[in-house]
Amino acid sequence: MQNISLDTLFELSEFFKFFGDTTRIRVIHLLLSGEMSVSAIAEKLNLEQSVVSHQLRILRTANLVKPTRDGRKIYYALDDEHIGEIFNTGLAHILHKKKG
Amino acid sequence: MQNISLDTLFELSEFFKFFGDTTRIRVIHLLLSGEMSVSAIAEKLNLEQSVVSHQLRILRTANLVKPTRDGRKIYYALDDEHIGEIFNTGLAHILHKKKG
DNA sequence: TGTATATATGAATTGTTGTTCATATATTTA
DNA sequence: TAAATATATGAACAACAATTCATATATACA
Questions:
Q1: How far is B21 from chain A (nearest CA, A)?
Q2: B97 has which bridge partners?
Q3: C27 C1' – A2 CA distance, angstroms?
Q4: How confident is the model at residue B100 (pLDDT cuts 50, 70, 90)?
């Protein structure tokens, strides 16, 4: 295998943490279909607004999502093409395991 | 996007959690090169034996690694081809972001 | 069978993280 | 500019997870 620094491995684990929470993975899943406002996300996922905002801040700080303001609303979109790829690779694993 | 059940999304986030810890990601990285005994892993990563054992139990319970006993030693290997794929996809993202 | 070696595990502790609640900020419109 | 709407954020709390330390189990070998 490649020689990967401790630092990079740490960053990698930090990166995967973003996918390791139900709320965040649901948000990510939702945004795979396209951008959506905070209130729309909250309504669609049946979550409190502040829960969504807090988690969006985490994703935004990590540059996994990016906001665009339109009037009072702020639309969030996935910021990186890799996100969907990682999501789908994990999903493939889960579904594969389900079948046995 | 596909219609994914809440249950599956939960499982997916649980799955990514395994990658979201430095110790575990280091173990996974190590095992990408092939199987290795507990003591060898601990020595290579400069970690206490019990730390490694505890984390291996988590990975084993989730069927991410599988043990094979040979005498007193127990060799652990990655149990699934997807593991490396997910690891590398995440790594590609990290390295890509580093370059900017 | 007693001792050494390899690994696993339980309990306690500590650090981290997600949610809740209250409130602040920003934007629009009356 | 006041009120309404949309989003963000800080603090407190609760739940969870990782490590440490002590010890248990399993295997090999003298």
A1: 5
A2: none
A3: 50
A4: low
Which tokens go with B32?
A: 């990408």
B87, B59 contact by CB (below 8 A): no
Q: Note the residue count of chain B.
A: 100
A10, B29, B31 from B66: Cα distances, Å: 24, 15, 11
Write the single-letter amino acid at A38.
V
Convert chain B into a string of H (helix), E (strand) and C (coil): CCCCCHHHHHHHHHHHHCCCCHHHHHHHHHHCCCCEEHHHHHHHHCCCHHHHHHHHHHHHHCCCEEEEEECCEEEEEECCHHHHHHHHHHHHHHHHHHHC
Positions in chain A whose pLDDT score sits under 50: none
B15 and chain A in contact, CB less than 8 A: yes
A38 in contact with nucleic chain D (CB within 7 A): yes
Whether A51 CB is under 7 Å from strand C:
yes
In the sheet with B36-37, reading across from the earlier edge strand, the strands are: B36-37, B73-78, B65-70
Sign, CA torsion A57/A59/A60/A62: positive
This prediction has a pTM of: 0.95
